[in-house]
Amino acid sequence: MRSGCAAILAMVLASGCNRQIERPAADDLTLAQAAASCAYPRLDGQGLRASDIPVAHTPSCRYTTFPDPVLAACAEPLAPGTVDLRGVWIDATTPHGHLERIEQCGDRVTITAAGIIHDMRTDDSYEHGVNDVSERGCVPISVKAEFVAGVHTLHPKWLPLTVTRRLDGDQLVWDYPTGVYRLTRLCGPGSPSDPAAVVAALHTRP
Asked: Pick from 137, 176, 182, 178: which is nearest to 156 by CA?
């Protein structure tokens, strides 16, 4: 595992800083995929809990069709100290910018983007963190997750770096080793859901 993590770090360093991250074709949502991804459940306790839903994993190193939501049936209220980051987010500053879907319930966070599904509990443990593959190179990874002062923070095992996501007004600030990216929410809980507008936004150049 250590050698795999060293390979990931080498790839990240080779990418350089402030690298634009383009989304793969699988993340160009269809109307049906946008409708499913924008249908966020009410977290009112009247349904499944986070522990009732099996952990999702990336299929065969990378998905080729954007997956259905993982936590669609979960109704467990967000855990204390958790910030609601749910939504479909896009880097609208560049053509074909990075897109990600964030789902949450209880202390669970599921991020679907760039061919991978990272499903985790934010309990600051590797056991319940991301135990999946990396976005680059399909290298097995183990990452613990937590919310620190409202910031979703990822700590990869054996790597001297962190990845964070936080809200700044209407934007999601994603601090990744290759740069800091500001994402715009296309849809989310409490906001009008217009799947056609989401699909159109994916093909609108800045």
From this structure: 176
Strand-by-strand arrangement of the 116-121 sheet: 116-121, 108-113, 99-105, 87-90, 179-187, 171-176, 163-168, 151-156, 140-148, 130-133
Question: Higher model confidence: residue 73 or residue 193?
Answer: 73
Other CB atoms within 10 Å distance of the CB of residue 192: 7
| C-alpha to C-alpha distance for 105 and 75, rounded to whole angstroms | 7
pTM over 0.85: yes
The pLDDT value recorded for residue 136 is: 85
